[in-house]
Amino acid sequence: MFSCYLVLDSSSAKSDLAYENRERGFTMAKMCSLALFPPLPYGQITLCESNNELLSGTSSDEALKQDFIPPSLHFPRESLKLHSRPESSSKAAFLDHSETLWMRSAAAWRDGGLSGLLNEITTSHSEAPKWLSVTSGCILAVLRWVSSFHGSLFPHVTLSSEDMITEFSQVLNWPDCVVRAFSWHPHTDKFAVALLDDSIKIYNPKSAITPTLKHRLQRNVAAVQWKPLCASALAVACQNCLLVWHVDPCSLSTRPSSSCAQVLSHPGHSPVTSIAWSPSGSLLLSASPMDMSMMVWDVAAE
C-alpha cells in the first residue's frame, strides 16, 4: 500500500494569492480608463448618466430622455448687480480744492507707489525744488525703462489685472461669462458657483437654503475649490488675495458673515488665477501670473 502526501508550501500559496490580487487590481485600475470600457451597441449613443450608470440609446429614444430630466439653474444677467465704479473714478463728483505738494505726494504714494510719487514730484515744477524735480524725473525714466525691458521679456506683466485673469482663467470669455467659476464638493452632494457679480452661491439638492457668499475683497473671482475631507471650507481665488470661507453646512443663514472668510495674501502674488488643495486638505497651493513661484499655505496656521 502506498500513501501519498501532498505538501502545500504556504509561502507559495500566499505569493500566488498576492499575484492574483495584483492582477485583479491591475485590471480594475485599467478599467478606470474610458478607452477600455466595452463599446456601445451599434447605432446607440450615451444619452445621460443616472445613479452612477451611463444610459445609452438611439438619438430618437425620447422616452429615455424624458425619464431623466436633470434640474437646471438659470442666472439672468440682468439680476446680477455689478460692482460700482472704483473710488478713483468718482473724484470728478467732488469740487477741486488746493492741496500742498506733500499732500499730493502722499496720495500719489498711496495710490501709485514709488512711480506715482516720482511722477507727482516731476510734474510739479513750480512747487518742487528744481534739483528734486530733475532727480525724480531721472529716476522715473530709469524705472520706466526697466519696466519696459521687463515687459518685453514677460509681455503678460504689462496687462491689467482683469486682462491677466482673462488670459489665464480656465473659463472661456471670462469677462462676459455669467458663471466665472464652478466646483463640485468631492465628498458631498453640493457645489459652489461664482457669478459675474463676484458673489458665490452654494447649492445642495437636499437643502432649500442657498447660502450666498460676499466679501469686500472678493473681486474678479477666477477659481473656487472645496477643501477635501471637510464639508465647510471653500477656497476662492480673487484679484488681490485668497479667501477661505468656513460655512457651517447646518447653518440656516442665507448670507454668512464676512468674518467667516479667512484672508490670505502675499506681496506680488496677485491676481490669483489657480488654486488646489493637497489630498489631505492641510495645505493650499495658489498660482499667479505675476509670480514665478507657487505659494503653499498652511491655512490652519495662518
From TrEMBL:
Residues 160-302 form the Aladin seven-bladed propeller domain. Keywords: Repeat, WD repeat. Pfam families: Beta-prop_Aladin. GO terms for cellular component: nuclear pore. SMART domains: WD40. PROSITE patterns: WD_REPEATS_1, WD_REPEATS_2, WD_REPEATS_REGION. One of its GO terms (biological process) is nucleocytoplasmic transport. WD repeats lie at residues 272-302. It comes from the Eukaryota. InterPro entries: Aladin, Beta-prop_Aladin, WD40/YVTN_repeat-like_dom_sf, WD40_repeat_CS, WD40_repeat_dom_sf, WD40_rpt. This is Achalasia, adrenocortical insufficiency, alacrimia. It comes from Nothobranchius kadleci. The lineage of its organism: Eukaryota, Metazoa, Chordata, Craniata, Vertebrata.
